[in-house]
Design goal:
Length: 501
Amino acid sequence: MRVFSVLVLVGGIVLCQAVAAEESTSATTSTATSDQPSSAEALAARQEFDKALQPWKRLAGHMQELHVRFLASNPENRKVVRQEYGEVLAESERVLHELMPVLKRAYTANPTDPELMDFMSTIAILNFDGDKFDDALDLAECLIANNFPKPEVYDLAGLAAHELDRLDDAEKYLRIAAEKNALSSYGRELLAELPNYRAVVEAEMARRAASDEKGDLPRVRLHTTRGDIVLELFEDDAPNTVASFLGLVADGFYDGLNFHRVVSAFGAMSGSPTNDGQGGPGYETLFEGNSAQPLPHLRGTVSMVPLTKRTNGSQFFITLRPSRAAGLNGKQTVFARVIEGMDVVTRLHRFDTVEPNSLFEPDRILEATIIRRRSHRYDALTTADIAQEKSAQGIAMFQQQKFSEASKLFREGLDLLPTHHALHFNLAACLLNERKFDEAEKQLRETLRLNAKHAKAHHFLGIILNTRGQKEEAISHFREALRIDPTSKPAREALQAIEGS
């Protein structure tokens, strides 16, 4: 009987479990021969690894015990188990970090040791699956350098290099994988798109280099439960979004908020005031970006999670895997990038607020602070501000009896703020002057749905209804107009005329 290490990935964290397995005599004999270190140095490296592995195994076993306890516990006890699990997890990650260089030394000294080969390759794959592409590529290149016999390692190295935007390395490894018939469908897709993606990355790097020369882009530090993340904000490309974000940071809006959704192979989200992916700051800002050539979601790119197709609020998204987030290009306002602490982002607990049985506590933003800003004021223009501007411009057109132009402006305002009752009424007034009575009626009814005490809307709706012979409903609206505004001479005259007919 021998002991094998079985690796599993839980919430982005690599665990290890010791499993006993029976082997045939012949298998044991052949393995024992190949397992023998070839020198005292190799033997010492293997023994160092075996010793270093034991604390990690013990911690992993403890975590698995806690997982079983968690599933069997009631909601109150689960809080206690979660806390203990978090403490053990933190220690496990520390031990794992210290184990990696020991593993590489042991494998390099014993490159034909099947257990070390299996351990190295499996942990490289799990690091990739956990979005730890630097670690995955480091281990994959170590395997390649020591003539690892399985050609799939080239595919893994190419995929990891691609996510890190090391595109020359990505192309090299993926082409070798293709030559060895070991290219995955994912790798084939990335290799085919590589020329286009290279152009996108090079254009983005050139844009960032030009911004770096100025050296004055705003920066924000997110002090989280996992460490510090520093963002550099793209004010020149998304000035209004940056102004809004800085205003929320200055107001302490983000302090204490969870990373309410962290999805492997995609990204991390925060900024929900209710910590459940809902809500916003109480206002909306317009999407910013060039739809023809949008800023791309590279690793560490930060974009706004939209409230609607055209508007943003407070929630934001940090990219973990660019190839899977590319579908967001042009759909979310890119406004920042991570310049420090990307390792912190990759270590955020994989968590989704819609999953009630998560063993992980969500990580949080303890405090967000502005560490650099330009000297001017940052006043974000909200959709309500823009709608108000459209309303003022429309009124000016209406007064010049340019009803078609006024209607267009009022409609643009309503696209941004559909609950603005005054815009609905003003649009109805334009439509009445254009003799579009059916459309005017719809706008007046919407005005009254939003503001039942709008006397003029009752009056105008009464006029439309009376012209159609709907006298009873017209009388009702004229009377309501007078109840709201007893001084309304037009409503009184209209009521007298209809009642006297």
